[in-house]
Structures are given as structure tokens and as C-alpha cells.
Amino acid sequence: MSEVERIDDQMRRAFEGEAWHGPAVQELLRDVTPQQAARRPITAAHSIWELVLHMNTWKNVVHRRLGGDPATEVPPEMDFPPVTDTGAAAWRATLDRLSEAQARLQQALRGIRDGQLDEPPAQGVSTRYRLLHGVIQHDLYHAGQIAILKKG
Q1: 127-131: long-range contacts, CB 8 A cutoff, minimum separation 24
Q2: Backbone torsions φ then ψ of 111, nearest 5 degrees
Q3: Residue range 115-142: average pLDDT?
């Protein structure tokens, strides 16, 4: 198995399931209602919905960086976009966009050769290896937050 294939496997496990640590992102989100997603059980914390929007942003940033765009600036309104519609259709659209961002990212990953992993895809950007592992770590970090918020 190549290193790219191993990273792809870890990315899939963190997002879809069969992760060693526990529930993956999609497993945690599967039964979340729009009301639960918008709720803020910890006053100073982000809601599940805000976390999903944030994860989507960073999947897109990493995808852009892998494509050669340094995408260095992420303004606060993009980092944690506001939730403006808390209806069921908006929640479904948010989840769909997250899945689409994940699919684009994995497609980009599959176009990388092992020999390119230690190279930055653009000036001033981390190596492909660090970008890819970073997005996996990011998913796992926020999956833990989502798990706690679901209990609140």
C-alpha cells in the first residue's frame, strides 16, 4: 500500500467510519436534527452547525492549497460562517456540502504521488503531507466536540 493510499484510508475512516478512536464525523452527524445542530448547550462554544460549516471551510481551503492556491487568508466570516437559516433543508444542504467537500478533497488526494507528499503545493504553504494529515486531525478534533455537544 502506498503512503497516499494510507492517508486516503485514514481520511475516509475519520470522516465516514471504521475509525479506531470511535465515531467518525458522518456517524456522529447521521442522527443530528436541525434543532440539535443549531442548539448551543455550552454558551461560549460553537454549535454543531457552526462546527460543520467550519469543517467545510477548511476542507475547501486544503483542497485549494493542494491545487496550488496558497489560500493564506481565511477571514472570520469564512472560518466560522454564521448560521442564517436553521430549517431542515438548510441543514441537509450543509451536510451535503460537507460531504461534497470531502469527496473533492479525497479526489485531489488520489491525484498525488507519494514522492510529492513532502513538497509544498504552493509558495508559503505546508507540505502536502502536513495539509492532508492536518485535515484528518481537524476532523477528529471537531468530531469530539460534536460528540460532546450531542450530549448537551
Answers
A1: 128/66, 129/7, 131/62, 131/65, 131/66
A2: -90, 0
A3: 97
Q: What pTM, to 2 d.p., does this model score? A: 0.96
Q: Alpha-carbon distance 50 to 56, whole Å?
A: 10
pLDDT at position 72, please? 77
Cell triple for 63: 483542497
Dist. CA 14–CA 25, nearest whole Å: 7
Instruction: Report DSSP letters for 76-141, one per residue.
Output: HHHHS------SHHHHHHHHHHHHHHHHHHHHHHHT--GGGTTS-SSTT---HHHHHHHHHHHHHH
In order of their start, the domains of the chain are 3-151 (1.20.120.450)
Alpha carbons 39 and 128: distance in angstroms, whole number: 36
